[in-house]
Amino acid sequence: MKILLLNWKNGENDPFTYFNKCLQNKLYTLGKRSEILELNENFENNFLKNLKEGIDFVITWQGIASNLLNKKTGRNLWDEVKVPLFCLHGDHPCHKLQNHTAISDYIHHIYLAPSFCRYANQFIPRATSAKFTILPNIFPTVSDSERHFSGDYFIFPKNHDDTQEMIRFWEEKYPQHIAKTLKEIADSIKTEYLNSNLKDHHEIIENFIDQDFLEKSKSVFNTKNESLIRNHIHAITDKFYRNFISENILTSLPDVKIQIYGRGWERFKALNNKYHSFYSFDKAINGDFQFQSNYGILDVAPIYDTIHDRSFRALSQKNSFLIASSWDAAFFLNREFKGLFFNGKNNLLRSIVEDIIKDPDSHRSSATYFQSSYNQFYGFHQFLNYIECQI
Fold first, then answer.
1. 8 A C-beta contact, residue 87 and residue 68
2. Integer distance in angstroms from the first to the last C-alpha of the chain?
3. Which of 15, 142, 171, 251 sits in a 20 to 30 Å window from 44, CA-based?
4. Tens of pLDDT along the chain (391 residues)?
C-alpha cells in the first residue's frame, strides 16, 4: 500500500513539484510509502497500475483532479475507485471554483484558513462539510552548517497585479453601476487593512452583494446563476487585497533596502527607487536563496487569518519573516509574537522594520521561537493522524 501525491507542473513557478517532494520526505520519516504521480497524458495508466498495487489515499493541492470523471460512466473517479482524496486548499474557494465543488463521500476538502472553510461551507453545496486544519511546516530545515545569511536588506517575493490596472480594467469592462460597486469594495478592503486587518475581506465583499446587485449583474455576466455571480465578484475583488498590501509595503518603506522577486512590478520599477531592486522568479524548488538575507523576508498572507508558505520556508532556512497577517498566534500558540505580524495601522510596519534593522538577530530569535512553538503544536505526525482519522 502507498500514498499517492498528485502533481501538476503548470502552476506559476511550479510550486507543487517542490511541495510534493517535501511532503514525500516527511511521509518517509514516518514510515509511509508514497509516490508522486504526474497529472499528464500518462496519468490514467500510471494510476491504474498503482490502484492494482494498493492505495491508502491520495493527496492533491488546491483540489486539482477532484473533478475527474470516468469517461465511460460519467461518474466521479474517486467514487468509482473508492479511494479517499484529500484536497489541501491554500487558495480561497472563489478561485477555480470547479476544484472546490466535487461532491463525493471519498473527497475531503480541507482548507488551511478558517475563513476559507466558512465560505466553502456557506456557499458551495457539498455532501460532507469542508474542514479546516493547520498544515505543519513541511519544508526541510537546514543544518547549522548550511545556515547562511548575507546582505543587509529585506527580500519580498511576490508576483504582482497592479491595483491601478485592476480599477482601470473594471471601469472599461463593466457598466458604471458594476464598476462603482467593485471600486467601493476595494475602498472598504483598503480601509479595513489600514485600520486593523481584523476582518475577513470576503465578508466585506459579501456586504455589497445584495439581491438588487445580483439581479442587475445577471445580464452583465450572461447568467441567471446567482452563485456563479457571487463567486465571480469575490474572485475579481479578492486580488485587490494582497496586491494593495504589497504596494503599501513599498510605499511605506521607500528608504528601506528591499529586493523584490516576481512579475508585474513595472509601475514601481519606473520610479527608479535606489533602495528597491526587482528580479524575476525561477521555479519554487530553486528559491532557497530568497530566504537567506540578513533581515529576512517580507510576506503577505492571502487573507487575514492564515500564514503564507513563504514564511514557513524562511523558517526552514532558520531565518526570520515579517508578514501582513492577523493570524491569532495567542489562540493557536498561547503567545502573541507581535513582532512577526503587521497591518497597515499607525506605521506599524515601519516601526517593526526599524527594530529589525537595528537588531536582526533578535528578530531572528523571535522567529526561531515561533517555529519551535508551532512545530510543537502542529507536527507532521499530528497532521498525518488527522488525515488517517478521516478515512
1. no
2. 15
3. 15
4. 899 999 999 999 999 999 999 999 999 999 999 999 999 999 999 999 999 999 999 999 999 999 998 888 889 999 999 999 999 999 999 999 999 999 899 999 999 999 999 999 999 988 789 999 999 999 999 998 888 899 999 999 999 999 999 999 999 999 999 999 999 999 999 999 999 999 999 999 999 999 999 999 999 999 999 999 999 999 999 999 999 999 999 999 999 999 999 999 999 999 999 999 999 988 888 889 999 999 999 999 999 999 999 999 999 999 999 999 999 999 999 999 999 999 999 999 999 999 999 999 999 999 999 999 999 999 999 999 999 999 8
The type of residue at 318 is K
Question: Please, what sign has the CA dihedral across residues 384, 388, 390, 391?
Answer: positive
Backbone angles phi, psi at 111, to 5 degrees: -105, 145
46 burial (CB, 10 Å; 0-12 / 13-18 / 19+) is middle
Rounded to the nearest 10 degrees, the angle between the axes of helix 114-123 and helix 226-252 is: 160
**Is residue 364 within 8 Å of residue 320, measured between CB atoms?**
yes
